[in-house]
Backbone:
């Protein structure tokens, strides 16, 4: 959190390591600091930060990055440079790996597919799944070659059924609060990833499963998917951001109605409410939302990666403040793309009438 008393913005930058006054961002391993100074009641607001990890998290992240991501063909077939074959996703009945992560290659390089794989537990959120997802988020956060992330399920007919109630039932009462807090932090970190995130909802997304999807930038569902924050049925409330993110997505009144009534809607109704961006007809293989998400990721992939990150930052921070402050945030974020090599490449490509080739520099 940053607290200042005057507004100062600088638009003159000589290198990408130069500092501007609004939020924090990392480009090519160098920390670019943007700091915003805000007047009055907007003087205190949440800044996007780049912080040093403590020893425990650093060790965990280092371990994660050293792991070899080799997956059986039945889970993720080798990605191909282009064509529908590269989009093919196969399911697995093997429950030994709760989370499968794939960094695509070829023309899809930069797209990361994070697949939840707990078929016997309907992809419910367990301690182990939270741990694995934390590791994945930390790894993606440090990788400046990532352009977009697709969060999906490897289990037919289910996205995520929410908390693992069987595991929860075995917890001592004193353990429940810390676990929910850790799950909430995970979902917040997912929402804070600097790259676009797309939730591909090919089945039921209930409770914490929908809260996870709500933390993503874009949601795509199949028409037959079921979505709902159903916690009041269990005499509790959404505890991982649902009461805050759902109203921001569909409006306060509609969010209250869905949460109070623990209502579940299908993909088409979710699209009508604005809960998801797109609802697609489910296919025979049960991965229509995933395929549509992959198409969208491919649309994002060729764009300037620093520009996309800065656009996400400006939108996420600007939506939480008044218009005047939001415009100042946009100005500061815009200033960060001015000294980049990508911007010069974009101008050169336009002049030479060719597709640009961006490197994230």
Residues:
């Amino acid at each position: 959190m940053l607290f200042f008393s005057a507004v100062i913005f600088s638009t003159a930058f000589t290198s990408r390591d130069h500092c501007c006054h609004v939020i924090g961002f990392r480009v090519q391993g160098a920390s670019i600091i943007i700091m915003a100074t805000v007047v009055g009641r907007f003087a205190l607001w949440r800044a996007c930060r780049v912080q040093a990890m403590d020893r425990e998290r650093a060790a965990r992240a280092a371990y994660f990055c050293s792991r070899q991501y080799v997956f059986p063909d039945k889970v993720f077939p080798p990605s191909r440079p282009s064509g529908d074959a590269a989009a093919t996703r196969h399911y697995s009945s093997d429950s030994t790996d709760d989370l499968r992560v794939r960094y695509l290659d070829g023309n899809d390089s930069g797209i990361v597919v994070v697949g939840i794989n707990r078929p016997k537990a309907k992809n419910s959120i367990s301690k182990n799944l939270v741990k694995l997802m934390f590791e994945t988020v930390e790894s993606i956060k440090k990788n400046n070659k990532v352009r977009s992330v697709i969060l999906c399920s490897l289990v037919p007919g289910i996205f995520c059924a929410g908390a693992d109630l069987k595991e929860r039932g075995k917890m001592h009462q004193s353990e429940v609060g810390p676990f929910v807090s850790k799950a909430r932090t995970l979902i917040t970190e997912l929402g804070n990833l600097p790259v676009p995130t797309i939730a591909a909802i090919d089945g039921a997304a209930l409770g914490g499963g929908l809260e996870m999807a709500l933390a993503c930038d874009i949601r795509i569902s199949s028409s037959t998917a079921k979505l709902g924050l159903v916690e009041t049925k269990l005499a509790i409330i959404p505890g991982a951001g649902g009461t805050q993110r759902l109203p921001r997505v569909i409006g306060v009144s509609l969010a209250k109605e869905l949460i109070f009534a623990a209502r579940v809607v299908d993909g088409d109704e979710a699209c009508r409410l604005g809960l998801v961006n797109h609802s697609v007809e489910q296919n025979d293989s049960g991965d229509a939302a995933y395929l549509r998400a992959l198409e969208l990721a491919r649309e994002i992939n060729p764009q300037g990666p620093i520009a996309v990150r800065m656009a996400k930052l400006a939108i996420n921070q600007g939506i939480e403040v008044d218009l005047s402050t939001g415009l100042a945030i946009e100005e500061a974020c815009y200033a960060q793309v001015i000294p980049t090599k990508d911007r010069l490449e974009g101008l050169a490509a336009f002049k030479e009438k060719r597709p640009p080739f961006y490197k994230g520099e």
In short: The first helix runs from residue 55 to 66.
